[in-house]
C-alpha cells in the first residue's frame, strides 16, 4: 500500500460542519479529515487507574463547556490523553500483541480496506495498543471503521489464542489532525513509540515512511 501524498491530506476546519458526540470521551467527526487514533487492549491499564482517570475526567468535563479553547484542549490532553499514553508505554496487562501471529491479524484488519474505505498513513502496533493515522472516505464514519477493525481482530485473535471475552477497550482515543505540523508530531510519535517498549521493542510492528 502507498502512503497518502501530503498535498491530499485535509486538516481540521474550525468553520466546517462537524459531528460531535460523547461516550466517556468527546469525539469530533469531520468529513475527509485525517485522524490520529489509539485503541488498546482491555487490560492494558490497571482497573484502579482507569477508575481514577474516569472520575477526574468527569469532574473536568463538568467544569468546562464545549467548544474548548486551544488552552483547554491542551490542558485536557496533558491531564488525560498524555497520561494514558505514558501508562500504555509501560506495557502492562497481557500484552497479547507481543505474539507475532496476533500482530499479523491486526495488520490484516487495518490494511484490508486501505484505499477502498479509508486511507492509511503511518501506524504502529505495540504490545498492548495500536496507533493509526487514518482518513475515512466520504460517507464513512471513523467509529464505523474502528468497530470493523476491532470486531474482525477480536474474533480472529480469540480464536487463535483459544480465549473468550472482551479483547479491546470499547472506547478509543481519536484526534482530528489540525495542521501539517500537528501531523508531523503524530508521525514522529508513531515512529518513536517502539523505543518506549523496552524489552518488547523488537515485537512492535511499524509502518512508517
List the keywords:
209 residues; alpha+beta; Alpha-Beta Plaits; 5-stranded antiparallel beta sheet; two-stranded antiparallel ribbon; 5 helices; globular
Characterise this structure:
The longest helix is centred in the last third of the chain and has 20 residues, at 142-161. The strands form two sheets. A five-stranded antiparallel β-sheet has the order 6-3-5-4-7, sandwiched between helices. A two-stranded antiparallel ribbon has the order 1-2. The N and C termini lie close together (11 Å). Helix 3 (100-111) packs antiparallel against helix 4 (142-161). The protein has one domain (6-44, 94-207): Alpha-Beta Plaits (2-Layer Sandwich). It is 38% helix and 18% strand. The protein is an alpha+beta fold and 209 residues long. It is globular, with a radius of gyration of 17 Å. A hairpin with a 3-residue loop joins strand 4 (118-125) and strand 5. The protein contains five helices and seven strands. The mean pLDDT is 84.
Summarize the structure.
This protein has 5 helices and 7 strands.
CATH superfamily: Transposase IS200-like
- Calculate Rg over CA atoms: 17 Å
Low-pLDDT parts are none
Order of helices and strands: EEEHHHEEHEHE
- The main sheet orders its strands as 6-3-5-4-7
Helix content: 25-40%
The CATH topology, please? Alpha-Beta Plaits
What is the mean pLDDT? 84
| Total number of distinct structural domains | 1
Please outline the major beta sheet: 5 strands, antiparallel
**What is the CATH C level class, in words?**
Alpha Beta
- Coarse shape: globular
Enumerate how many helices there are, as a single number. Answer: 5
Q: Report the strand count.
A: 7
CATH architecture: 2-Layer Sandwich
Strand content: 15-25%
Amino acid at each position: 500500500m502507498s502512503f497518502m501524498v501530503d498535498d491530499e491530506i485535509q486538516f481540521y476546519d474550525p468553520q466546517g460542519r462537524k459531528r460531535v458526540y460523547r461516550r466517556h470521551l468527546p469525539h469530533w467527526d469531520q468529513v475527509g479529515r485525517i485522524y490520529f487514533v489509539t485503541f488498546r487492549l482491555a487490560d492494558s491499564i490497571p482497573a484502579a487507574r482507569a477508575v481514577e482517570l474516569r472520575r477526574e475526567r468527569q469532574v473536568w468535563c463538568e467544569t468546562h463547556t464545549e467548544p474548548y479553547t486551544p488552552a483547554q484542549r491542551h490542558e485536557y490532553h496533558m491531564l488525560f490523553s498524555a497520561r494514558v499514553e505514558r501508562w500504555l508505554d509501560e506495557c502492562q496487562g497481557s500484552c497479547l500483541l507481543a505474539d507475532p501471529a496476533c500482530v499479523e491479524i491486526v495488520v490484516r484488519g487495518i490494511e484490508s480496506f486501505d484505499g477502498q474505505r479509508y486511507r492509511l498513513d503511518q501506524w504502529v502496533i505495540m504490545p498492548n495498543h495500536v496507533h493509526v493515522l487514518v482518513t475515512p472516505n466520504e460517507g464513512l464514519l471513523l467509529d464505523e471503521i474502528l468497530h470493523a477493525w476491532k470486531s474482525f481482530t477480536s474474533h480472529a485473535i480469540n480464536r487463535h489464542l483459544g480465549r473468550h471475552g472482551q479483547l479491546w477497550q470499547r472506547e478509543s482515543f481519536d484526534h482530528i489532525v489540525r495542521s501539517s505540523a500537528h501531523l508531523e508530531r503524530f508521525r514522529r510519535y508513531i515512529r518513536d513509540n517502539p523505543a518506549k517498549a523496552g524489552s518488547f521493542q523488537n515485537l512492535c510492528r511499524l509502518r512508517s515512511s
